[in-house]
Amino acid sequence: MTTAEAKEYILQHLATLRLTEKRRGELDGEVEKWTARLALAQGKGLEDLAAGAQGELERSRAERDRIALEAEDLRGQIERMIRQLPALGARERSVDPDLLVQELLMATGALPGDEDRVKLERDLRALEKTQGVQSDLAALKAKIADEKGTDKP
Fold first, then answer.
1. CA distance 109 to 34
2. Is the pLDDT of residue 137 over 80?
3. First-to-last C-alpha distance (Å) of the chain
């Protein structure tokens, strides 16, 4: 999942959270309404209406509590996802390796497409360096041999 996809996913969860919180607000209103109706029915001594209002009040409270738990769960999920966003972004490749090779070639004075010529030049320079070291070594050996030969009269 890319960072953009993760952000979109988080936005969808946020939208769901907002709808859940809106529903919780509606249920708070229902709880208040049924509490008032229960008090009214009890005040008038209408026990059958009071029992019905009590049942609706309990149903509304249970639904409100379930929605509140759902909202808290969504909040926790969203917070975890937001904390994971930087790590997700760090895993995404932000450098094109082929483009980087071409830029490095241009920085060394070569043109894109000259990879073979650059490799050939690099290999020849290494060979020349090796050859130079070998000739220096041979000259040093000859000098040592001459010095040993002149020291034995």
1. 82
2. yes
3. 84
